[in-house]
Amino acid sequence: MASFSVEDFVGDGALKGLLPKLLEEGWDDVPTLKIMNSGDMDAINMTRQQKDALEIRCYLHDRALMLYGDKLEASGKGLPELLGLSNAELYAQYGMKRGHIARFMDRTNPCAADPFPALNALPSRRKIMATALSSNNSIYKGELSSVNTRKMHMRSPATSAPNSDVTLEKSISDLKIKDGHIFKGIVAAGPAEPRACGCMQPPPIVDSVAPYPIIENISVQKLTPEYKIGMERLVKTKTPPMKALELWRDKPAVLICIRRPGCIMCRAEAHQLYAKKPMFDALGIQLFAVLHEHVEAEVKDFWPRYWGGVVLYDKGMEFFKALGGGKLLKDKFISGFLFNPRAIANYKRAKAMGVEQNFKGEGPTAKSGGIIQNITRV
C-alpha cells in the first residue's frame, strides 16, 4: 500500500525540488497533493514535466505501485502514453511484474475498495463543496452524513453572494451537544450475520456508544502530530495527558479506534479514511487515530505510511469501551475471524491492496476497532 509520506510520494524525480514551494503554498500532505488541478499547478508555476510527474504518481499511489514511480517518471512519457504500452514493453522497460501490470492497466482503481467521486475533477482545493461527502458514497454514515445534509455547506467565493454564505463556524454552532447525548458509532459496518451456516450466532452490534460526559473526560496522550512535509517522524518530547474534550473544543472530530497498528485490516481502514482528508478539511473536521498500547516501533511503522493524522494513546482503553457501550468488544479468533465471512472479506480486500502486517502487540484484547463520529461541543 502506498505511503502517506510526501517524501516517498515525490521520490527522486521532478517534484523533489518543488517541495519547499509546495510546503509554502499549503500542499503539504499526500491527500491534498492528489487533488491539485491544472489551475492549482499553474498557480505555483509547475513545468510540464512536473505536471506529468504528479499525474503519474497520483495514478500509481491509487494502485499501490509507487515502487515504479522513479522509473516511469524518468522515461519522459506522460501517463496516457505509458498506459498505451503493451504488457511486454512494461515488463522489458520497467521490470514491472505481471500482477502489477494488471493493476497498472486497470483504470478502475482496483485498490480503492470504497471509491469516492474523482477528487481531481473538483474545481480546486479551496472550492471543495460539502456535498462531496454525500451519503450515497460514504461508508461513514450516521451523524457525519447528517451534518453534511443539515448545515455544513461550503460555497465557492466566486459564485456566492457575501450574505448568502453559511460559515463553518455558524454551522458548527447548530450542533449543540447536551448532557446525556448518545453518539452513534460504527463497529462492524452492517448488521451482524450468522456464522458457520447459522450454527454460531455473532455478538450483537452495539449502537449506543456512550454519553458525552463520559467521552469528554477520557484521558489521552498525543504520540504524533499531523504529518507535514519534512517534520520529525515522532513527537520527541513526551506530551502530558490531556482530556479528550480538548481535541474537539474548536472543531468537530472523527476518531478511528485502532485495534492494533500492525493489523492488516486496521491499516487498510485507516489508510482509506485518511485518503479522504481533503473532504474532511473542507468541512472543518479533524481526524484522529486512537491506539490502546504504545509500542514506539509500531507507531513508526503506522505513521505516516498508513495514517498521516494525529495518533493518540488511550492507555485505559476508554474509547474502545465507549464503542461497546462501556464494555470491551471481544471475540475469539475462530468465531470472530475464521467463521466470520465479513472479516474474511475485509482481510482479502486488505491483502489485495498490498497492505503489510505483523502480529506484535495485544490485538486480541479488543474484537475490533471502530469510529466515533462528529464529536463537538460549542
Automatic annotation (TrEMBL):
Q: What is its main location?
A: cytoplasm
What does the UniProt entry say about where the protein is found? Cytoplasm
Top-level division of the source organism's lineage: Eukaryota
Q: Which InterPro entries match?
A: PXL2A/B/C (IPR032801), Thioredoxin-like_sf (IPR036249)
Q: Which key words are in the record? A: Cytoplasm, Redox-active center
> What Pfam family is a match for this entry?
AhpC-TSA_2
Cellular component GO terms, alphabetical: cytoplasm
Q: Which family does it belong to?
A: Belongs to the peroxiredoxin-like PRXL2 family. PRXL2A subfamily.
- Its name, as the record gives it, is Peroxiredoxin-like 2A
Q: Which organism is it from?
A: Actinidia rufa
The opening ranks of the lineage are: Eukaryota, Viridiplantae, Streptophyta, Embryophyta, Tracheophyta
